[in-house]
């Protein structure tokens, strides 16, 4: 005699399962808070420096992307984890976000809220130098500055020893229709052992900047350039990955007739993850 298949669960049963999972998630978040409370006490006696850990955060995001499956969009999962991380960081050491709104307020606010949530205070600035200056005069704040273009060479303020540096580039997990797609540099002070150096960001001042020099650099590094008419040149912010080097960049400039006036390391960040149209994640 054929066995009767079990009856499918009722809507009430499924909702009870969801309620149970929700309670477990909440309990785990409160447990995480208890651990953070203990961590604060340990840091007071064993660690000196900022609460930001860019290298650890990049590693967490990579592992999250690699293990994710199912119908829940990865964007949602990333944002949840980002908000958890930033909020618990805020609990450890309160900080504010100083955002450059020169390219538009809406996109920058989307990036800030996607990556940092609503608990962290959001402070508006009308240009990048003002946002960077606010961080330089703070104990542990962050600046968010658009990463693809600029009207002023704000990164010159990061050259000095002890100045804040670029510590991250967002979004870290990229795709064509990302809900917070504005490319943003995150600027702050962090402990040396917390940095991630897969991509180095260099301030390079050159004379003889023109279309030929720009084309020479395009295969080697991502460049933000602000013309300097006083020296017939430009102030460059170059993002250089591990498969090239500053020497290769300066050599390419010299070969096309440019003169390198100065170079300074102004930060570093993790290599971004890109989700192609197939949905797989690659770095």
Provide the low-confidence segments as ranges. 45-49
Instruction: Provide the helix percentage.
Output: 25-40%
- Could you give the order of the helices and strands? HHHEHEHEEEEEHEEHEE
What is the total tally of β strands? 11
Overall pLDDT? 88
Strand content of the residues, in percent?
A: 15-25%
Figure out the total of helices: 7
Major sheet summary line: 5 strands, mixed
Radius of gyration: 22 Å
Which overall shape is indicated by the principal axes computed on the Cα atoms?
A: elongated
Our measurement of the CA-to-CA distance between the termini, rounded to an integer number of angstroms, reads 55 Å
SS-based class: alpha/beta
Overall number of structural domains: 2
Sheet with most strands: strand arrangement: 2-1-3-6-4
Q: Would you mind describing this structure in some detail?
A:
The protein is an alpha/beta fold and about 280 residues long. It has helices at about 10-45, 55-65, 75-90, 105-115, 130-135, 210-215, 245-255; strands at about 95-100, 120-125, 140-145, 165-170, 175, 185-190, 200-205, 220-230, 235-240, 260-270, 275. Strands 2-1-3-6-4 form a 5-stranded mixed beta sheet, sandwiched between helices. Strands 8-9-7-10 form a 4-stranded antiparallel beta sheet, covered by helices on one side. Strand 8 (about 220-230) and strand 9 form a beta hairpin. Helix 2 packs antiparallel against helix 3 (about 75-90) and helix 3 (about 75-90) crosses helix 4.
């Amino acid at each position: 005699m054929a066995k009767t298949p079990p009856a499918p669960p009722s809507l009430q049963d499924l909702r009870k399962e969801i309620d149970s999972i929700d309670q477990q998630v909440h309990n785990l978040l409160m447990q995480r808070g208890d651990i953070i409370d203990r961590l604060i006490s340990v840091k007071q006696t064993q660690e000196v420096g900022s609460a930001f850990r860019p290298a650890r955060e990049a590693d967490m995001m990579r592992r999250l992307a690699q293990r994710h499956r199912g119908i829940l969009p990865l964007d949602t999962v990333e944002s949840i984890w980002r908000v958890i991380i930033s909020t618990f960081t805020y609990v450890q050491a309160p900080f504010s976000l100083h955002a450059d709104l020169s390219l538009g307020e809406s996109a920058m606010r989307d990036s800030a809220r996607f990556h940092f949530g609503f608990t962290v205070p959001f402070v508006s600035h009308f240009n990048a130098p003002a946002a960077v200056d606010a961080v330089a005069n703070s104990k542990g704040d962050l600046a968010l500055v658009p990463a693809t273009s600029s009207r002023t060479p704000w990164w010159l303020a990061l050259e000095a020893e002890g100045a804040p540096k670029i510590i991250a580039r967002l979004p870290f997990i990229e795709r064509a229709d990302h809900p917070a797609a504005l490319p943003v540099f995150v600027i702050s002070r962090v402990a040396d052992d917390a940095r991630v150096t897969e991509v180095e960001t260099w301030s390079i001042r050159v004379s003889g900047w023109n279309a030929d020099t720009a084309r020479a650099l395009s295969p080697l590094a991502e460049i933000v350039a602000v013309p300097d008419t006083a020296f017939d040149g430009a102030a460059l912010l170059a993002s250089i990955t591990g498969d090239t080097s500053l020497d290769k960049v300066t050599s390419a400039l010299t070969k096309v007739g440019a003169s390198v006036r100065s170079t300074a390391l102004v930060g570093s960040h993790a290599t971004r993850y890109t989700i192609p149209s197939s949905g797989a994640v690659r770095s």
